[in-house]
Amino acid sequence: MRKKRKSLIRHIALLLFAIATLVACEKDDQQQSRNFHMGFTPFPYESSVDAANFTYARLSEDADIINHHFDNGVPWTEAFSGDDFTESIMGDWNFRKSQTKASHKIYLSVTPINFTRTGLASYRGEQDNMTLPSPWDTYSFNSIEVKTAYLNYCKRIIDFFNPDYFNMAIEANLLYVNNPARWSEYMELHQYIYSALKASYPSLPIFCSVSGAYLLEGFINNNDHVQQRLAVLQLLEYSDLYSLSFYSYLTTYLGNPYPANTFDALFNLSDKPLAIAETGYAAQTFSIDIGSGLIKIESDQDKQEKYIRDLLTACMKRETKFVINFVVRDYDQLWAQIGSPNDISIAWRDTGLIDENGEPRKAYSTWKEFKSRKFILN
């Protein structure tokens, strides 16, 4: 009897040891893994071949997903008629495709909304963001012409790039912020495009991105965050992911500390799989003209590093598909090439994980730390 009792105790002890070891291994695996892809856009730091080569080289090394981001107009007339797109467009597409690493996931983002998020996207022809030709400058979002052209455009760009993720409308909720009178006609287009694309590409995640700052109380002056959340809920009915665009330093907090619960509060607004469609944090102090004067935003690379670490850590707690830090390297040279304006073009100048001299910042090391972890699919 005594021997049986000792044997039973020994078996229980061994079982408890095995369970403890298994739990410890699982925790270790979690600490040494990540559940999301990490990447950038190929936005160059200046207009040169060297800058493009540098950017794609860093993407090859420091990312496992690339975001081809098209917020520069839509070839409306050609998309509607079925004519070939311009040499400028196809040259851009072919170069991007040739430089994309075969093993990388592809996240493709386009939009029918203009850059100021007030109306229909501008025309893309031989140049970006050209004036809408007549009669396209009179069409509503829900016109048959816009519906037909935009669906054709989405299908053509999907078929060309064969993406793993497709964002059909960049920061779509900002139209509700800036021009609510056009919201209902946009929502008709939104529902139409999503439904048609899902019918053609049922296994492709199709979604829109939303600007997260407007969903949080106190982040934007004179903003009804509850009303904004209701608008986003309308969008998410026709979106496979809860995809966020977020730049905390471009809010009322500027370069000051954001609330400790910021990411939890933002991420918990939807139970759909999460994606960080675009983000970044300025690592230097700069001033920006907001129309009523200059605002100074004070920052440094320590603040940037904290933001990147906070973000990636928060994403580990959720079913997250990917995180895109929009800029690889500061684009001071490009900013100088366009005349060094203090307008919106300066807003993301210093958000690179690599500075304007090509030197890695502290946040780059943090990024590499997470990137080095083994990717484990959700």
List keywords for this structure.
TIM Barrel; globular; 378 residues; signal; alpha/beta; eight-stranded parallel β-barrel; GH
Provide an overview of this structure.
Keywords: Signal. Residues 1-26 form the signal peptide. InterPro entries: GH (IPR017853). There is one protein chain. With 378 residues, the chain is an alpha/beta fold. The chain has one domain: TIM Barrel (Alpha-Beta Barrel), CATH 3.20.20.80. Helix content is 41%, strand content 14%. The strands form 3 sheets. An 8-stranded parallel beta barrel has the order 2-3-4-5-6-7-8-11, surrounded by 4 helices. A two-stranded parallel ribbon has the order 1-12. A two-stranded antiparallel sheet has the order 9-10. Strand 7 (242-246), helix 9 and strand 8 (274-279) form a beta-alpha-beta unit. Helix 5 packs across helix 7 and helix 10 (301-316) packs parallel to helix 12. It starts with a helix and ends with a strand. The model is unreliable at 15-30 (pLDDT under 50).
